[in-house]
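Problem 12. The chain below contains 105 residues. Write out its predicted structure in token notation.
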Amino acid sequence: MNWFILVLAGLFEVGWAIGLKYTEGFTRPLATTATVIAMAISLGLLGIAMKSLPVGTAYAVWVGVGAVGTVILGIVLFNEPLNALRVGSVVLIVIGLVGLKLASP
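Solution.
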């Protein structure tokens, strides 16, 4: 269950990372409020997951899920570049996340 919570925390991290773009420097109140709420939920879920998962693993997976999701949504939503090096880098992050899961109790 804590792994599910951790991945969910990572998805909320994607939400607030993308949300930052929409806040336009915290000048848009609705986007800013949604982003701050996503931040709080993400950190709260991370804290819950860390109760039983190793801190290094939990943090790395949280950041990794956030990074992979943010890169993908950046490509889809903001027309960021898609090339072999970016895809390969994301694949390496995913491989690292799977390795951390397999190496954790």
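Discussion. The mean pLDDT is 96. Students who got a different answer should revisit the alignment rule from Section 12.3.
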